[in-house]
Structures are given as C-alpha cells and as structure tokens.
Amino acid sequence: MEDDQEEHRLRTGLPAPAPAFAGSVELSRNSIRDSVRKAIAAWLLRTPSIATRKNYRRDLGQFLSFSGIHRDRPELLLETRPEDVASWREALQDQGLANSTVARKLTVLRSLFSYLQVYGYTGANPAHSKFVATPPVPRDGKTVGLSPRDCRRLLDAPDPSTPVGLRDRAILATLAYSACRVGELVKLKVEDFKTSGEHRVLSLYGKGGKERTVPLHVEAVERLNAWIACSTITAERSSPLFRPPLTSRGRGLDGFATRPLTVRAVEYLDEKYARLLGLDPAVTVHSLRVTALTTARERGADIVDLQDFAGHSDPRTTLTYIRTRDRLSKSPAYVLKY
Fold first, then answer.
1. Residue 48: CA count within 13 A, CB half-sphere
2. What are phi and psi of 200, to 5 degrees?
C-alpha cells in the first residue's frame, strides 16, 4: 500500500512526506529533489580543491550505497536518522577501517547536513556528534617520524654528482625544512622561490587555495640554488620548480622535461632513499613533515607559530603531528629499580 502511495506521489507531484525532524514541508518531491541536488553540488564546490571534492563525493556515495539510496533520488537523504549514521559507522569499523578514517567520513556527512541546513533544510543534522559519537582518534598520528640523525642521513643520501641527485637533494631539503605537503611541493614554480627582505622564502599553496610564505633554512637555500643553476631554469619563472628528467637513464644529463613531478614520483624517490638507508619501512614522504614539526617543537617553537608554519586551520591538527620522542626518554619506566 505504501509503495502504491509513493508511486502515486511521484506521478502526480503531490507533496512529499516531511524529511526527518523537519515538521511540515509543503513542497513537491520533485522540488525537494532538485533543491537537494543543487545543494550537494554547491557543497562540493565550496572547496576549490579538486582532490577534496573527489574524496567528499566518494564518501557521500558510500553512504548512499550503504543506505540503499539511488543517486537519482537524493531527496531520500533527508529521511536519514541518527541510527542510520550509527549503523554506517559500525559497518565501516567492521570493515577494519582505522578510527581516523571513519571519523573523517562521518565529518564529511556531518558537513553536508550542516550545509543543507544553511541551504534551507529545516531538519536536524543526523550525523551531529550529539546524535552519533565519532570513534576516538589517537592524539598522535600514525605517520612515522625520523630522528634528527636519520633525517640527516636521508638528506645526504642523493648523489650530488648528477643533476637528478642535486634535484633530489633540493626536494628532500625543501620537505624537511619547510614542512610542506608533497602536494604543495609539486605545485611549486621557479618564481615561488624568492627573496623577502633579508629572507629567502617559498610561497606555498595549500589546501583550499590558501597561500603561506615559509622562510627557508640556509641549507635548503643552498640546495635549491644548486639545483636551479644545474638545471638552467632560472629564467623559466612560471615553470615547475621540480621536474622529471627527459630520460629515465640520463640522470638529468640530457635535460629535464617542462612538466612538474607527480606526487607519486616524489613519494617513490623518498621511499627509494629510505630503503637504501635501511630506515623503517613505514617511513614515507609525509614523515619529513612530521619530523620538521616535531623537531621544531622540541627545540622550543611555539604551537601557534607551528600551526602557521604547517598551514593548519586548527592548532589541534598541528598537535597530532608532534611525536613524543623526548618524552619517551624521560618515561618513569627508566627510573624503576627493584
């Protein structure tokens, strides 16, 4: 009977049932469908990052699939209740996903419903933390950090006698001394390495199109200058700063392409040197960002300055990058004696 009524509503365009918690809504189902579709599109466009939109779209699609909601009927999303979101959370955990991943997916869903409310939806947010608890996430992230000694070994691993080696030394120094994300590094252009007063700086373009200026350590400046001089790209101001060699076996002796390195290429070169040095297999290119923030904090940098240095919107995010190297050395475990 309910299915017949629903089919009748779809044919006639009669008012749809009110969405969860919404009270009375005198709109046709087609009108609601159109509004929700436009709201979702606007929500995705809110961020200028294509990668972020792709991730949001994927997470939303996973929830729709779990809930049995066809993409052509997005208005059914408004009938979502807290228990539906909680069931999704448990299903994600049963799949073995990390708490941080589950928390991120719930945050995406919560963000969408908050946006729908601003867009005119009168219901409650079924993914709100007051309805559905987010699984606990450890304060420390999972990315492995490097000790200062191992970081130095990694910085010195590339061969400085070849153009590719000079490039790799500049890349590793940029990552270690600017704490930039690998996605920010591959976007760098020659003109982003500049002078500001007495400082040599990098202009970095982070998440959401946010720009920040990071002063560089003298070693990073020297390595960048060596790479630029070797590659003869000084005059190519608007071209990529880091680029692949023309041929894989030429080691850059026959020149470099004009396209930027990919994120995967930078990840691979970091993994290659870490493997050659016998470092922890869990070391990734992101480890240099963690190492930079941890080391700076250990040596007295203020958390607010670190937040700005890292390009974080929230200092709590910055804290997740700070590893507990020295605190482990001071553990009460080492003073126990029986």
1. 7
2. -100, 130
Query: Can you tell me the distance from the alpha carbon of 210 to that of 194, in angstroms, rounded to the nearest whole number?
Result: 18
CB 245, CB 84: distance < 8 Å? no
* 106-160 per-position pLDDT tens digit: 999 999 999 998 888 888 899 998 999 988 876 556 778 888 999 999 999 999 9
Residue 22 has pLDDT above 50, yes or no: no
263, 186 Cβ separation under 8 angstroms? yes
Contacts of 17 (CB under 8 A, 6+ apart): 79
3-state secondary structure of 296: helix
**pLDDT tens per residue across span 149-175:** 999 999 999 999 999 999 999 999 999
Query: Of how many residues is the chain composed?
Result: 338
- Cα separation, 77 vs 122, in Å, equals 13
Judge contact between 27 and 123, C-beta under 8 A.
Answer: no
Structure tokens belonging to residue 224: 């960048």
Q: Read out DSSP for 206-245?
A: -GGG-EEEEE--HHHHHHHHHHHHHHT-TT-TTSBSS--B
Give dist(CA 113, CA 55) in Å, integer: 17
DSSP-derived secondary structure letter, 74? G
Q: Which is the CATH superfamily of the domain at 148-326?
A: Intergrase catalytic core (1.10.443.10)
- The first and second tokens of residue 267, run together, are 């990840």
Task: Please give the average per-residue pLDDT across 282-311, as a whole number.
Answer: 87
Listed by start position, the domains of the chain span 2-119, 148-326
Question: What pLDDT is recorded for position 159?
Answer: 94
| pLDDT tens figures, 35-77 | 899 999 999 998 877 878 898 999 999 999 999 999 889 989 9
Q: Specify the DSSP element, H or E, that contains 264.
A: helix 263-277
Look at phi and psi of residue 215 and say left if phi exceeds 0, alpha if psi is from -120 to 50, else beta.
Answer: beta
**Which has the closest alpha carbon to 84: 67, 72, 68?**
67
Burial code of 194-221, b = ≥16 C-beta within 10 A, e = fewer? eeeeeebbbbbbbbeeeebebbbeeebb
